Amino acid sequence: MSAPTTMEVPVGPQHPALKEPIRLTLYIDGEYVVRVKPRIGYVHRAIEKAFEQRNYIQNLYLAERVCGICSHSHIFCYSQCLDRLLEKPAPPRGEYIRLIVAELERIHSHLLWLGVAFHEIGFDTLWYYVWRDREVVMDLLELVSGNRVNYAMSTVGGARRDIDNLKADKIRKGMNVLEERTKYYLDVCIKDIVSGTSVRRRTEGVAILKTRDAIELGAVGPTARASNVKRDIRADDKYSAYAECWERSGVDVIVWETCDLWARVAVRVLEVIQSIQLIRDALDHMPSGPYRHPLPPVLRIPENEAISMVEAPRGELIHHIRSDGTDRPYRHKVRSPTLGNILPVCKMLEGVYIADVPIAFAGIDPCISCTDRVLHLIDVGRREPRDLGVFNIFELRHWARKRCGGSR
Amino acid sequence: MSELQRMPPEEVVERLRVALPEGALEEARIKEPIYALVRVRRDAWRKALETAKELGFFHVTTISGIDTGDGIEVAYHLRRDVTMEGKSYGGATHLRLSTKVPYDDAKLPTATDLYPSAGLYEREVQDLLGVRFEGHPEPERLVLPEIWPEGMHPLLKRHSLEEVLETIRKVEEELAKRKRAGGAP
């Protein structure tokens, strides 16, 4: 490729992949992306400063609201961190309830992503199917917690509500339905029984992230596992009830060797089945006893430091707290998984078609925070960088279909 | 296989103690079964990171910056969970490796040559706590807007919440003014 033949395409802050603001400046050559430069911060809500202003109990509510989709992961991670600061583990039943809700949340999040991914590749029928089935798990979450979004199921020293036998039976029934449906999606996505407009043909070989790049750039969660990196906090750290459930239910970290978008679809579908196994195991072996330690009216934590990590649906999540003896954290650091996946996604976008950018970017299941719709293209293939203007998602999708000759 | 073994945090601390100059390890604690919390002297910082990488800590989870009242502590959260080929050690070890810098000389050499994934996190710490990372390939703003005033780092304890909110209001006004004038936002 001769000298300056690239053009610059700012994608976002409002952009075509998911509905959250991030700006990706794409340097393109013809129809190919050459390099990507990210810029985040458009929805930075200064939550870490806010944590320092509130007491530990108020922060339970704030932690849950860091993310709307993986809200339980945050409160799980935060309450586990508090348990470690207090050096008083939660009772086993509480840990099991936390695990069950975390896995229900993983199912809902992965099914949500699958729907979005099918929509991005123009397979809207399957999108409707997946989101219909997602309602099964949403109903279960509502059954156990009373809420569809912020479940408030975890707290300092255990779980906030119990899961009794009646609820357990309903969850088991729901799992049977979901298992059958997920196996159907497995057939559609992996075994390729539906010919013609197949998912595999559209996603195979798109947006490759090699194993070594994934490790060097710090990919986390399903994105890393789809690049054949055996990284899963549940298996590595064996935190909470995973110490017992992981081995007993016979699951293993799911990795996929193709390192492309297809791998990311496959890993997530397989992880739904894995979550179903974990939930069944946890329900069958739920210990009796209390599910929560009583809470003091004012929670003061002596000077201490704790790190807590959980595997959120999108990957490793860390809460790091330093306490100073008061009822407020001295410093509370949160790193949500998407930030870890920004550099890897920039790498995987190199070499893809512009029309594949939405689905390739959506491939990491980004969770930045709200409303991404336009793409700004700059042509680097000419002598003078040329601004091609702003494109919306419908034009891009149309472009993608045209390029694929209508078969995809 | 012996090389695919989980490394206990005690061993990590011991290896660091051996590799670093005498007295460079200011603090070393073991937390839970997998966490090693280590603070090193600033002059041994680079060597400590290199040693960690040699020990197989390839993953940077994040970097927390902490305003301790007498300086800024920069803590890298490193993880040893997979080999470069993506194989699992069968269990992770977590190393919180930190060092302290004074307010009036808040800078550290960048770790991006050893850990490319640290790039974004270093920029985040640079924005929010004002620690400069020398040699960073892209030292631009990451989370704060371009027109955010220099020297105002919201996570420093000396800036109260009110002060930060006031700055946000001013920046928003300025952005709105630029938008009305028809320029780029």
Please give the order of strands in the largest beta sheet of chain A. 1-2-3
Helix content of chain B: 25-40%
Shape verdict of chain B? elongated
**Rg from Cα of chain A:** 22 Å
Low-confidence stretches of chain B: none
Low-confidence stretches of chain A: 369-384
Please report the two chains with the greatest interface, counting residues with C-beta closer than 8 angstroms to the partner's C-beta.
Answer: A-B, 46 and 45 residues
Number of domains of chain B: 2
Give the strand content of chain A: 15-25%
> What is the CATH class designation of the largest domain in chain A?
Mainly Alpha
- The oligomerization state is heterodimer
How many domains of chain A? The number is: 2
End-to-end separation of chain A in angstroms reads 29 Å
Q: What string gives the helices and strands of chain A in order?
A: EEEHHHHHEEHHHHHHHEEEHHEEH
Topology, number of strands of chain B: 7
Remind me, CATH topology of the largest domain in chain B?
A: Beta Polymerase, domain 2
Structural class of chain B: alpha/beta
Please state the overall shape of chain A, judged from the principal axes of the Cα atoms. Answer: globular
| Helix vs. strand class of chain A | alpha+beta
How are the strands of the largest sheet of chain B arranged? 1-2-5-4-3
| Helix-strand string of chain B | HEEHEEEEHEH
Structural commentary:
The complex is a heterodimer of chains A (408) and B (185). Chain A is of the alpha+beta class and 408 residues long. Chain A has 2 domains: 7-43 and 355-403, no CATH class; 47-335, Cytochrome-c3 Hydrogenase, chain B. Chain A is 47% helix and 15% strand. In chain A, a hairpin with a 6-residue loop joins β9 (374-379) and β10. Mean pLDDT of chain A is 85; it is low at 369-384. Chain B is of the alpha/beta class and 185 residues long. Chain B has a 5-stranded mixed beta sheet with strand order 1-2-5-4-3. The mean pLDDT of chain B is 91. At the A-B interface, β3, α1, α8, α10 and β6 of A face β3, β4, β5 and α3 of B.
